[in-house]
Amino acid sequence: xxxxxxxxxxxxxxxxxxxxxxxxxxxxxxxxxxxxxxxxxxxxxxxxxxxxxxxxxxxxxxxxxxxxxxxxxxxxxxxxxxxxxxxxxxxxxxxxxxxxxxxxxxxxxxxxxxxxxxxxxxxxxxxxxxxxxxxxxxxxxxxxxxxxxxxxxxxxxxxxxxxxxxxxxxxxxxxxxxxxxxxxxxxxxxxxxxxxxxxxxxxxxxxxxxxxxxxxxxxxxxxxxxxxxxxxxxxxxxxxx
Length: 241
What we know:
The protein is α/β, with parallel strands linked by helices.
């Protein structure tokens, strides 16, 4: 069966900032969804904050195997009940890929149980990302390290629980370092946090950034056969009397 991907974006920046549209003329949802073009194993839809129920209705989430999230400055506008709904679907098995400033989203904070704060500056630093776990499915096909010409600096301490797996570390020419690729499990769901993706820089065009996101979508996707087994209300006896 195809993997059903929903790409969510708050949509605020591309509506109001010409410098964002200069880099991503189709907006963030456009560039993220284009990564899946020609990939027959995926079925992709997009959603945004401006839609009814923030584009995250019960029907859409129930039909989503992995949710990709990009947000920036309107985290507070997501209704609490929608954040709780997304959290509940992750706990039941929906995968979640949280990109860049999504670390401040209500959804990520609820799932991590912390503020998810970090140090940052926007000096367009060169970033070098070092792969720590090359055999992990998310890092399949990624070299030992690769460079982004410019990125917003995210630095430690990143206020998150210890990741299940730390897959990559980012180093910036300012001297800062950051846990830039982390996995978590919550309930039956898999979560991947990935740091690149500032809205006025070209990171989402980088071939390795794209490959990591595609790999992560496959890794995190809900296992629907397992879902039916795990969430069945009836459990027959394992042994006969």
